[in-house]
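Fill-in record for NADAR domain-containing protein.
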Amino acid sequence: MRIYFYKVNAPYGCFSNFSPHSIQMPPKTANESVSKHWATVEHYYQAHKFCGTKFEYLMTQIQAAPTPEQAAQIGRSCQECYHPDWNLRKCEIMYRAIWQKFSSHLDIQQVLLATLDAEIIEDSPVDYFWGCGTDRTGQNHLGQILMRVRADLQARNAERTVMPDG
Ligand SMILES: Nc1nc(O)c(N)c(N[C@@H]2O[C@H](COP(=O)(O)O)[C@@H](O)[C@H]2O)n1
């Protein structure tokens, strides 16, 4: 079975990074003492394009953006400003944020787990990296990450239900 999603207000809209599910991300380094609140996964993802660059001030602007669309607009505004390793880092950054989203919002965690082993596909008409693109030949990395998070939640939940011996 295949599940296609894209728009927040359509079926499986909670799988979109634009869905209104905030995340609290733990500090990444010992120097960073507080965890940070992000309104959506898209805010976190877009801001991290500039992490570790002289354009980090854009991270604060993105974090404060009123909507994920505005966060994406700022995040896409200066491609030359991205961290040089952005393309190497972006899938792990996306995984971290999506894991946090689905482990902290139990209602949508149930929606994800209820898809069992269905293939999940971001039906983006424009994005051939994160989605499947208009002709559905794209790489679908967002769907792959959602399926990885689903498998990790299944494994974690199975571990929690195992009773200790004796
Ligand atoms: N709902 C929605 N609207 C758009 O306009 C989109 N482009 C997407 N796709 C998401 O965009 C992010 C990738 O952004 P960059 O191309 O790296 O700037 C990623 O979250 C896709 O899932 N979705």
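KEY FINDING: The first strand starts at residue 2 and ends at 5.
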